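thought: fold this chain, then report.
action: predict
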Amino acid sequence: MITQKLYGKVLKNLQLYQEAQEIGFDYIINPVSGELHGVNPERFSGSHLLKDSNLENFIGIVNWGVLAIHTVPPGTLIPIFDLNTGDSIGSFILNKCQYCFPN
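observation:
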């Protein structure tokens, strides 16, 4: 488990996702599978077309330079806290998307 705090917001619909893009989220995570995706606009519309997927309950994650989450090894427990309230959203076992993080 990592000790740094990561902050994010649960994305319940397309409007929240679009707001998340404006906020500048660096990653989104699927809370069911723990799969981490990069939100880099150049890669985001890659072969898995995540931008057109149902992102309900995915969590947008902000990287404030404290921790580049994509450098954390797969299988690491990642605690995420709400960007607005600081309350725990949950902890997820990291599973990196093969399209977003090919290396």
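thought: worth noting. The longest strand covers residues 6-11.
final: tokens above.
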